[in-house]
Every structure is written in structure tokens, then in C-alpha cells.
Amino acid sequence: MATPRKPDPKRKGKQRREERVEVFVRQYLIDGNAARAARAAGYSPTRAKERGYELLREPDVQQLLELRKAEAIKRLDLKLDDTLQEIARVAYSRVDDVGDLQGGVLYANDFADMPERVLSAIAEMTQTEHGVRIKMHPKVPALLALGRHQGMKDTTRHELTGPDGQPLPVAPPATIHYHLPAAPRLKRAKEGGSGG
Description:
Order of helices and strands: HHHHHHEEHEEH
Helix content: 40-55%
Largest sheet: 2 strands, antiparallel
CATH superfamily of the domain at 12-77: Terminase, small subunit, N-terminal DNA-binding domain, HTH motif
Structural class: mainly alpha
Radius of gyration: 34 Å
Number of strands: 4
CATH architecture of the domain at 12-77: Orthogonal Bundle
CATH class of the domain at 12-77: Mainly Alpha
Distance between the termini: 128 Å
Number of helices: 8
CATH topology of the domain at 12-77: Arc Repressor Mutant, subunit A
């Protein structure tokens, strides 16, 4: 009779890591938050931020992320042109596409007659006592996304350096000397003298 084989602890550890990485990747693709994905994968909440960052730098995790993204794109039949078109609808939207602005009041067009490009730019509609409140999607992030796609560099980050790329010199704080006039001396009355 053959003796049962003991499970290989290295195999079990590797399998557990693969499962954790799979959970990490799935969660990361949902919201792009590495710390939350690490917690979902069972890593310590106190080290989740560090561990998420470390996982994102590992080549096997990067490969799995790319694979799962490609699968999702194929499954949803997403096309780059469709995505860019939707971003452009927001980026180039105008309030006057929604209605007529008269005297500071927007009179909305009939929503049933609005073209899809206009409806795509609307983030929220709320009925109020005065009419319908319309909130548009923000244009700046959409414009930045289109610009990045076209190869424009994001100019919102600036790095300041000193000569030859060295750190900027920082002068010590100046010492300020105040010269105050001397306080007038008060005369004291002599003790025990005659009062007058």
C-alpha cells in the first residue's frame, strides 16, 4: 500500500500567491486603487498601500493586468475610436447645445429631440422646484485625455532645479534686528520724605 504524499508547501504557497494576484488584478481593474486591491487580495491593511505599489511593479502582475484588460476590451467589443469619440463629445460640448440661454436662465430643449452627442455630455439631471437642473461632465479632464492621446505632454507638473540640475539653494532665514528707543526713566519718590 502506497503512503499518501504530503502536500508540497512551496506549491501551496505559489498557488496561494497566484490566487491573491488574480484577486488583486481583478480589483485593480475595477477602480485603479492598488491599496484597495491589495486589501481585497488578503494582504495586511497596514501595508496594503506599499504592497499594492510593489505588486504593480512585478512583471508577472503587469502581464496579467494587460491580459485581463485585453480580455475585457474584447468581451465588451470596445474600440479605441468609440472611446475617443465619447471623450470628444464631452470635451467639445457646449451648454447652448442643451438649450437656449436667455437672461441667465437656460431653457432646455426637448430631451427626446437632443442628439446623442449632446446627451453624452450630460452628467446629471435633477428636477427642482424651478425646473430641471443640468450638470455637464467636466470638460478639462476630457480635453486632457484627448491631448494625451494626441501626444501632448501634461504641463501641470513642474520640477524646479538649480544650476546643473542640482537642488535649488535655500538661503537661511534672515535675522532682523529691531532698535527700539529707550524707555523713559521714571523718577521715584523718596521714601519717608515729606509729602506735599
